[in-house]
Amino acid sequence: HIGALPYIIEKLGMPPIYTRNLTSLMLKKRQAEFPHVPDLDFKIIEGNEGVMIGQTSVKFYGVTHSIPDSMGIIIDTPYGWITTPGDFKLDHVDGKPTDEEEENYKVFDGKNVLLLLGESTNIENPGFSTPESVVHDNLAEIVKSIKGRLIVGMFASHFFRIAKIAEACELNGKKMVIEGRSLKNNIDIMIQAGLLKINKSTVINAPDMVNYSPDKIVILATGGQGDAYSALMRISEKQHKYVQINERDTVLLSSSIIPGNEKAVQKMKDNIARNGAKIIHYRSSDVFIHATGHANRGEIEWLHKKLNPKFFMPMHGHHYHVKLHADLAMQLGMPRENIIIPDDCNILEIQDKGTKFVKLPVKAPDNVVIVDGFTVGDIQDVVLRDRQILAEDGIFVVVAMLNPMSGRLIKSPDIISRGSVYLRESQELLREIRTTVRTTIEKAVYDTRNQPDLDYVKDVVTDTLGKFIFRETAKRPIIIPVILFA
């Protein structure tokens, strides 16, 4: 969620960034790719300390998530606390939070929580989520017992899993190969932050794998979501210089599929299967090899009971999810009027000395910021529309040589088609297009003979040819007429 910061921080006026040390190290590594952006001003938060930001007191507390050093925020107001844990879960044992989690949330004991903003991602999932510690134990056992080479596809941000796999490699005398720029960067950050203590000889470079038995090799690779050009996708497509999958390999996908990535992941799995390797993924494994970083319904309910907020705003999820979260809050006894289900850009306000929670009739600006090459900012709708048309229906360029004296074409117009119709196999259509263009131009020129208007002629060609092509092909390509005077 921090990847957008280099694109927006200057627009925000370069404010200070209050964060844990780990996040600051990740941001510094990210910022190195944007040397034109001024240095960031970090305010490192240690433990559950509080800070004064202007006249406002802000406190922090640790939360469990898929990445270390995650924290919730408390804004102290005269009428009570406003808080959000952000993305969170519980690393529980049979529904009981760990001692560390109990200590973190003890900050709320006896406090007046005015407003809770709570995530809703997994509100549909009953009970408690799988603890990350269970996944760690299972991954360690797989590293220990697997026969042949093990290739693990994972998110580069799963720091805990990286550390556990590295520890298991050391305990079992195996070598670890890191493939993927983001993985390598994050491992450097983990070492710098003291989250990974590993013997340098445990990690080897890919070319050195030939010096070891496949049983002694564990490869960590980015691309578990089937990302184009990622390490694991290149390996699956036999495009990797040093890693060629074979029937003695096992590929473990330690992540669930993000909605929208299903086809890409399936393509990657098909590629791996064609090479004979065994695939272990979260649906086929007999043990848990992945756990969500988001709270299930049971953990969300625990949070509500622990904080007992007066007002509530569900967030982080589709409207369906936040509606279910609001329903849960009402089932737990919160009055309907104390809950606001927001839409993007809504502005909410606590009024009358903390007695009313309202949605204002105005909205915040919601312009989309698009990174388009070296350009960052708004993009015109017409540009996006043209790109969509180019992608779906292609482009036609019509080049015509016109005799201005006679108002007739000197020769048959040239037609250039890209991404629409393969003209070499559509000669009859090409002849009809040329005839249509010639007839249309000459008629339009004749109609404006008293007041020649080239723009009018081009518009008529675009309209007439567009209708003809749609009638013949059911496509609506971009049409660019170029009319030259001989």
Question: Could you characterize the architecture of this molecule?
Answer:
The protein has 486 residues and is of the alpha/beta class. The protein folds into three domains: 45-128 and 292-363, Ribonuclease Z/Hydroxyacylglutathione hydrolase-like (Metallo-beta-lactamase, Chain A); 132-281, Metallo-hydrolase/oxidoreductase (Rossmann fold), CATH 3.40.50; 380-485, Ubiquitin-like (UB roll) (Roll). It has 13 helices and 22 strands. It has helices spanning 5-8, 21-31, 99-105, 132-145, 159-171, 181-193, 231-236, 262-274, 297-307, 319-331, 381-393, 427-447, 454-473; strands at residues 17-19, 42-44, 50-53, 56-62, 71-77, 80-84, 113-119, 150-153, 175-179, 203-204, 217-221, 250-253, 278-281, 311-315, 346-351, 356-363, 370-372, 375-377, 395-403, 408-409, 414-418, 478-485. The strands form six sheets. A six-stranded mixed sheet has the order 3-4-5-6-7-14. Strands 10-9-11-8-12-13 form a six-stranded parallel sheet, sandwiched between helices. Helix 2 packs across helix 6 (181-193) and helix 4 runs parallel beside helix 5. The radius of gyration is 30 Å and the shape is globular. The mean pLDDT is 91.
Major sheet summary line:
6 strands, mixed
Shape descriptor? globular
N-C termini distance: 58 Å
Strand fraction equals 15-25%
Chain-averaged pLDDT: 91
The CATH architecture assignment of the largest domain turns out to be 4-Layer Sandwich
Strand order in space, largest sheet: 3-4-5-6-7-14
Task: Please state the structural category.
Answer: alpha/beta
Share of helix, binned: 25-40%
Reading off the top of the CATH hierarchy, the class of the largest domain is best stated as: Alpha Beta
- pLDDT < 50 runs, ≥5 residues: none
Number of helices: 13
